[in-house]
């Protein structure tokens, strides 16, 4: 088999990339290791209005669980800082499939239960993917491979672009979806407690119909096996009990890269996107906004490369140039804040934020809130 573009991973980044490339006329194949797209979910499911607008996606009732109007920063002593925001909480299992359907309608093909093993290389150039399907091991050739295969990215590693993650570069996370009626249906909450949640934070995102996502992320260097879920249980019974109560109907655990993007997200015949490229906010761990926007850019650049018959690294570098124009300052600022955060007196920070005249309006109009709250 041979395609113009092979996308490895049918998460939001990969699906949007496939959609954009197929829409531009490329022959596209999506390889997805799971049996069901969008399951299990691995995020709090929040997305900003701006991100959807940026990639040209109209909000659909079928995958919006709740509209969010406020973001609240809370601390153990009861201090809070509240701002207005514009966003949604998604139903990721529906949203992710919806994106793949759009890619298929544009002409892409999809193969499920396809476990990517490695990038195929010829003289240092990526020329395809080796994967294990239901009926054995296969090779598929491609003029461009888009690696959207998650935090460990076998494709990115075997192509020599993705280094091994160290514990301090990861947050270990645990999340419940709970059914109860105590949370604010129009606000999400970010809760900091450096003692109980070292190097991380907890969150509550409303999902409508008396549901909410409540979770916690802890810096990997401060964590141990099972610690994230244990801490989440303690938070739900303690500091977060006034914000969320109910019965868990789903539990998810996993890791999030918080080291910032890899040095190069392109090479001869390859692009990296989403968690595979570690395009995740180093402060918040938020990656869905970046996944959609960078995925769109990756698909567009891949299509341009096919049209120009130039899949060299020098041509594909324009992908990194474009996504860095969108996110470079955000990621650099977030990394700097993450480094100094352990030294800050958060009570004093919240007091300053709450008392500074017109600060909320300044933050909102500057776009900083989009970066802080949504990643």
Protein architecture, described:
The chain has 375 residues and is of the alpha/beta class. It folds into 2 domains: 194 residues, FAD/NAD(P)-binding domain; 168 residues, FAD/NAD(P)-binding domain (3-Layer(bba) Sandwich). Strands 1, 2, 6, 7, 8, 9, 15 and 16 form an 8-stranded mixed beta sheet that branches. Helix 1 packs parallel to helix 3. The longest helix has 28 residues. The radius of gyration is 20 Å and the shape is globular.
What level of helicity do the residues show?
A: 25-40%
CATH topology of the largest domain: FAD/NAD(P)-binding domain
Oligomer: single chain
Radius of gyration: 20 Å
The CATH architecture category of the largest domain equals 3-Layer(bba) Sandwich
CATH top level class name of the largest domain: Alpha Beta
Proportion of residues in β-strands: 25-35%
N-to-C order of helices and strands: EHEEHEEHEEEEHEEEEHEEEHHHHH
Task: Report on the biggest sheet.
Answer: 8 strands, mixed
- What best-fitting shape do the alpha-carbon axes yield? globular
Q: How many separate helices?
A: 10
Number of individual domains: 2
Q: How much is the average pLDDT? A: 90
Give the CATH H-level superfamily of the largest domain. Answer: FAD/NAD(P)-binding domain
Helices and strands: which structural class? alpha/beta
- What is the number of beta strands? 16
N- to C-terminal separation?
38 Å
Poorly predicted parts: 364-368
